Amino acid sequence: MNYGNGSLGKIHIIHLDRNEDILESLRRFAAAHGIRNGVVLTGYGTIDRCRFHSVTSNSLPPKDEFITVRSPLEVLGIHGLIANGEIHAHIEVADLEHSFGGHLEPGCRVLYLCDVAVAELEGLDLGFDLRRETGLRLLSVRSGNEAQGPAVELDDCNEPQSTAPARGWES
For the residues 86-96, what does the mean pLDDT come to? Predict the structure, then answer.
């Protein structure tokens, strides 16, 4: 586990119009306003083309599947981080029969509108760094701390073994 503390700075509300690309617009906005580290707090709207990717394996490196959906969709959420100027965000969308989502890719085109809130982070130095043990570029809190997080152990049937008493939905 890698963690750090900072505070929220200026909050930007970004309105995108018809035919604009969501990710490319956010990239241009962040660059134009010098946002190096931030949080994509929320987003909503409508799109007529969605492009995202999702992992399809448990192996390392994971296998990615890139998916394009050409249909009117409601954007239920956009969330993510900006680390050293690089945006990593996920999108959730739905039509009347399905909902799905994954890693936001260029090609998500606004149908009528899309509004996104981005907050700048102060006091944190973030980046996406290559990890030798996984071969993946993952978030690093460069100004942060390191600690060992709890692992999930599986029994012979690949079911998680809890080390804490059950609460809430668990039984």
Answer: 97
Which residues are within 8 A (CB) of 164 and not within 5 positions of it... i.e. 6 or more apart? Answer: none
Bridge partners of 161?
153
In 3-state terms the chain splits into helix, strand, coil percentages (rounded to 5) of 5, 55, 35
Mean pLDDT on 94-122: 97
Q: How far is CA 102 from CA 85, 88, 141, in A?
A: 21, 11, 23
Alpha carbons 75 and 101: distance in angstroms, whole number: 10
Task: Please state, in angstroms and rounded to a whole number, the distance separating the CA atoms of residues 152 and 162.
Answer: 8
Supply 27's token pair. 């990239």
Residue with tokens 């509300």: 13
21-43: pLDDT as tens digits? 999 999 999 999 999 999 999 99
Consecutive H or E run containing 31: helix 22-32
Sign of the four-CA dihedral 170, 103, 80, 107: negative
CB-CB contact of 10 with 122 (8 Å): no
More confident residue, 166 or 36: 36
Distances (CA, A) of 73 to 11, 23, 61, 66: 27, 16, 31, 17
